[in-house]
Amino acid sequence: MLRQSLLLLARSGRVKELVTRTPVSGALVARYVPGEATKDAVEATRDLVADGRLVTLDFLGEDTLDEGQAEATVAAYLEVLEALSQEGLARSAEVSVKLSAIGQALPEIGAKLSLENARRICRAARNVGTTVTLDMEDHTTTDQTLATLRELRKDFPETGAVLQAYLHRTEDDCRALAYEGSRVRLCKGAYKEPATVAFQDRHEVDKSYVRCLKVLMAGQGYPMVATHDPRMIRIAGAFATRFDRAPGTYEYQMLFGIRPDEQRRLAAVGERMRVYVPYGQEWYGYLMRRLAERPSNLTFFLRSLLSQ
Ligand code: FAD
Questions:
Q1: What whole-number distance in Å separates Cα of residue 51 and Cα of residue 40?
Q2: Three-class SS state of 96
Q3: Which end of the chain has fewer CB atoms within 10 angstroms, the N or the C?
Q4: Mutation choice for ligand 1 from 229, 231, 251, CB with most ligand atoms inside 8 A
Q5: pLDDT tens, position by position, 54-107
Q6: Helix (H, G, I), strand (E, B), or coil: what is residue 106?
């Protein structure tokens, strides 16, 4: 119930304005978002890489209906890719992109514009020796995002996809994407979705995650196991053994600021461990989804809000 309410608020313009205008709970934001500028993203990347972890950078933003904003987001990605290259970090850090931040939701032209914009980011990533992964958003965009992925992979086969285990369709999508060279990030899913398309019960989502993971680990692609859940991590390790996967043929991924000790532990035992690092000013939707996953953080957040 609380999770559903927080996910609804994640899309509320009025609450967004209230929360982002108040100098509220900076510590909580900072826990999940290392900063707003390119230099903050690069600095966080440098620290993580020095500590044996890999990185994927997300310039925060989503649901834009403004072509200028979409263009500014592309420019931010091009800038950070260049900065990573100059700092010698491009081999250890890639970027994650939300198509809705680069124009997908614009009426009439959205599909074409976001594909063109994604191509520009993929080209820049390729030029500095790294890759792009397309984040997955709510279920109304899944088909369009997978169609864009197919187009991009014609020229940039290294482009990664994200699939969400809470959707009923995802086991089939995993089968379709478990081919050689295909990089697929499997997560549980972070949006408020109706029962017609998504499992509502956490236990059902977990069971779906395991089925999807099995398909990906048994397949020919490169699975990216994106979860903080200790059980899912153990099961991923068991599948890696069962399907004879050599180290480096799959990786674990977690979000910046969540279970950092477990991130370090996995890296220390020789696993590829990538940290998703969001940065930028548009942290509201991202933060609300993190609160929805961990309502215990909410008390801290509300207390800070009320004390303003
Ligand atoms: P959960 O069952 O939520 O959590 C398991 C355990 O992890 C908890 O018991 C707790 O110990 C710890 N934990 C989880 N969340 C928190 C938190 N906020 N604070 C502190 N501890 C916590 N979702 C999408 O819909 N689209 C995407 O493109 C996408 N990309 C992602 C990329 C990466 C690298 C990761 C790690 C996640 C991504 N997600 C995405 C989010 C994902 O769908 C889940 O919402 C999120 O990862 C929480 O699910 P979980 O697997 O960690 O399991």
A1: 17
A2: strand
A3: N
A4: 229
A5: 999 999 998 899 999 999 999 999 999 999 999 999 999 999 999 999 999 999
A6: coil
Domains defined for the chain, CATH in brackets = 34-282 (3.20.20.220)
Separation of alpha carbons 9 and 6, rounded Å: 5
Does position 6 have pLDDT exceeding 80, yes or no? no
Can you tell me which residue has the tokens 């972890």?
53
Distance CA 193, CA 197 (A): 7
What is the end-to-end Cα distance of the chain in Å, rounded?
Answer: 27
- pLDDT, one tens digit per residue, over 142-180 is 999 999 999 999 999 999 999 999 999 999 999 999 999
- ipTM of the complex model: 0.96
233-277 pLDDT, tens digit each? 999 999 999 999 998 999 999 999 999 999 999 999 999 999 999
Q: How far apart are CA 246 and CA 16, in angstroms?
A: 45
| Pairing of the two strands 93-97 and 54-59 | parallel
Residues 8-35, mean pLDDT to the nearest whole number:
71
Reading the block at residue 200, the tokens are 């509502």
Q: How far apart are CA 98 and CA 136, in angstroms?
A: 7
- Asked whether 234 lines ligand 1 (CB < 6 A), one says no
Q: Is 97 in the pocket of ligand 1 (CB under 6 A)?
A: no
Read off the pTM: 0.93
Q: Tokens 């089925």 sit at which residue?
A: 211
Q: d(Cα 283, Cα 268) in Å, to the nearest integer?
A: 30
